Here is the input.
Amino acid sequence: LVTEWGAIGYWEMETTDWGVPFEATSSEKADVFLRAYREVLQPLEGQLLGSYVFFWGQKQERTPTWFGMLTEDGKETEVVDVMHYVWTGQWPDNRAPRVERLLLDGKGDRTSVVLSAGQQYEAVFDVIDPEGGPLVYRWELKAESAATSGGGDYEEPIASLEGYLAGPAAARTLLTAPPPGKYRLFAFVEDDQQHVAHANLPFLVVDDVEH
Here is the structure.
């Protein structure tokens, strides 16, 4: 019996130069789930009593997206597609959008992004919809979590910061860097079947970036 399997924890991920973890995109998490099934669970068929996948729901733990297979408003991510395949042997007819990349100031892919307060920077969210359907984008800016708890202890949700994002409903947006501190930029995209893809990038704001 496998009592829990799912996303890679924040304590196992690479961190920025200032020590906060990078979070996998919803598509990277889906790939992790599928690989875990194929490489660990499927070979145990006939010996395994069952397993518990974590987590069918949504919770705040360092971020609002780290462990949940659903979003805060109950919409399904790509991980649900994987579990549909695991449980039925068939992929769903309509699949969630797939994340290609999230860039801030042209940087991404586990890069420590440092910005100057008050300056504007472009953010880009590249996503593919398997069915080529219409997509709706949403951006959110939050302060980085200061939580130090572990073991799934309750964490207070972090409010989104308003007024720093221009064009928050497009694939590209302009971020005006807030006052100095640690932040995280979230990008969401939803298809016309209430499937969601998401990604986020932590970044640091200083008074002036030295070049």
